[in-house]
Write a structure and sequence with these properties.
With 429 residues, the protein is α/β, with parallel strands linked by helices. It folds into two domains: 203 residues, UDP-n-acetylglucosamine1-carboxyvinyl-transferase, Chain, CATH 3.65.10; 217 residues, UDP-n-acetylglucosamine1-carboxyvinyl-transferase, Chain (Alpha-beta prism), CATH 3.65.10.10. 30% of the residues lie in helices and 27% in strands. It contains 14 helices and 26 strands. The chain has a four-stranded mixed beta sheet. A four-stranded mixed beta sheet has the order 2-15-17-16. A hairpin with a 5-residue loop joins strand 12 and strand 13. The longest helix is centred in the middle third of the chain and has 14 residues. The N and C termini lie close together (5 Å). 52% of the residues are buried. Bound molecules: uridine-diphosphate-N-acetylglucosamine and phosphoenolpyruvate (PEP). Uridine-diphosphate-N-acetylglucosamine binds next to helix 1, helix 5 and helix 6.
């Protein structure tokens, strides 16, 4: 298993190109199941999760051509995928795949809508909470599917097809909204999804589905109205920039000081994060190219933050913010409201000298003057990168083990940071 070694203390200066969003690319790729025509996706990041999803879709009989030319500024823009699900040869998504990536559970809706049946293993993904699938099942049942759970699999059947209905989610779920939306676009009649997730990645999926011929209103709001159509067709769509990667690098620059242009980043997807960074004393400005992030001299001020569904502060940036606040002048409080077990980074940050106490869903972070390098272990995707942020300002050497978590969601992290002056390298096992 690879590790990453960082020698802390260097300021970051230069440019980082922001990749396409993992959490948009995955549902967009899955949407390819909904048509026998070709869906072309541009700006797809090269990530372990994308590679795994290609294998999963391949297992259903989907043909995926990759145009691997690294086009765009400095040859960095993402891959282009041509996804063709001419015929679905297998409607089962096996444990071996789905247990490794949460998003693969989202094949349920499209398979059911297109084939009238699906057998999908209960999902895995980052171990950040119990992460049930009741809301996904509620949505499928509201659309007329019969659901049975057997041997760790969700078996869903709708032999006469799905029928539109009102789906009211008791809680906001990104994944259940993706699943409901992809099922509803091919269901007979009208569907209304109430309390839908408003995350930009849901809107990105909906916009792609519209290009494929779906009829969806209310995109970007909490109520989605869908008029089912009998078939979808080919389309070309560009994956939106990764707001979590953007926020992560913004926090890395905030940590070390310096000035970095995040090329291709969209500040409008990160209002809550830009506000928090501003309160901490970090300047973030939209430019023609993306976002310019700088902290020159000013001390980091502590903040009080609670994670919330979009447009609130994202849970996927909670660990990174906590790493940053370990060096603030004063005491911060960070409350995690989305996942009950998303504090696995705390004990690893403490190894680096952070002072953090936990009380239920709230972490109290007392800023310290010095962090000291140590060996630490990545426990999940965003936790891993929070350790990298801390390592960038820790005295001496930090070695992060189990970076396969990181490779799920950050494309060439060590190159992007290294090009801006970080002393960082991958140690191959
Ligand atoms: C691949 C991807 O895009 N993953 C993102 C997605 O995960 P994911 O789609 O899994 O997260 P959800 O939005 O569904 O989860 C939100 C909350 O709802 C709960 N819940 C969810 C489904 C369900 O059937 N029942 C239920 O109770 C979850 O346990 C959690 O407490 O959104 C999360 C919240 O922004 C992000 O942290 C993840 O990075
Ligand atoms: C939690 C994440 O991913 P997943 O939902 O795939 O576990 C994430 O992207 O931070």
């Amino acid at each position: 298993m690879d590790s990453i070694r960082i020698r802390g203390g260097n300021r970051l200066n230069g440019e980082i190109h922001i990749s396409g969003a993992k959490n948009a690319a995955l549902p967009l790729m899955i949407a390819g199941l909904l048509t026998d025509d070709t869906l072309t996706l541009r700006n797809v990041p090269r990530l372990a999760d994308v590679a795994l999803l290609m294998r999963i879709l391949g297992n259903h009989g989907v043909d995926i051509g990759v145009d691997g030319k690294r086009m765009g500024v400095n040859g960095i823009a993402g891959d282009t995928l041509h996804i063709t699900a001419r015929t679905i040869v297998d409607t089962t998504a096996p444990y071996d795949f789905v247990s490794r990536m949460r998003a693969s559970f989202w094949v349920l809706g499209p398979l059911l809508a297109r084939c009238g049946e699906a057998k999908v293993s209960m999902p895995g993904g980052c171990a950040i909470g119990t992460r049930p699938v009741d809301l996904h099942l509620l949505a499928m049942e509201r659309l007329g599917a019969e659901i049975e759970i057997d041997g760790g699999y969700v078996i869903a059947r709708a032999p006469k097809g799905l029928t539109g209905n009102r789906i009211t989610f008791p809680k906001v779920s990104v994944g259940a909204t993706h699943n409901a939306l992809m099922a509803a676009v091919l269901a007979r009649g009208e569907t209304e999804i109430e309390n839908a997730a408003q995350e930009p990645e849901v809107a990105d999926l909906a916009e792609c589905l519209v290009k494929m011929g779906a009829r969806i209103e209310g995109i970007g709001t909490s109520t989605l109205n869908i008029s089912g159509v009998p078939r979808l067709h080919s389309a070309t769509h560009e994956v939106l920039p990764d707001r979590i990667e953007t926020g992560t690098y913004a926090m890395a620059v905030a940590m070390t000081g310096g000035e970095v242009d995040l090329i291709g980043a969209r500040g409008d997807l990160l209002d809550a994060v830009v506000d928090v960074l501003g309160a901490a004393g970090v300047a973030v400005k939209q430019t023609n190219q993306g976002l310019k992030v700088s902290r020159n001299g000013a001390a980091l001020a502590p903040v009080e933050v609670e994670t919330q569904p979009y447009p609130g502060f994202p849970t996927d940036l909670q660990a990174q913010l906590m790493a940053l606040m370990t060096r603030a002048e004063g005491t911060s409080t960070i409350t995690e409201t989305i996942f009950e077990n998303r504090f696995m980074h705390v004990q690893e940050l403490v190894r680096l000298g952070a002072e953090i106490s936990l009380n239920g869903d709230t972490a109290t972070v007392h800023g310290v003057e010095t962090l000291r390098g140590a060996e630490v272990m990545a426990t999940d995707l965003r936790a891993s990168v929070s350790l990298a942020i801390a390592g960038l300002m820790a005295e001496g050497e930090t070695v992060i083990h189990r970076v396969y978590h990181l490779d799920r969601g950050f494309e060439r992290l060590e190159k992007k940071l290294g090009d801006c002056g970080a002393d960082i390298e991958r140690l191959s096992a």
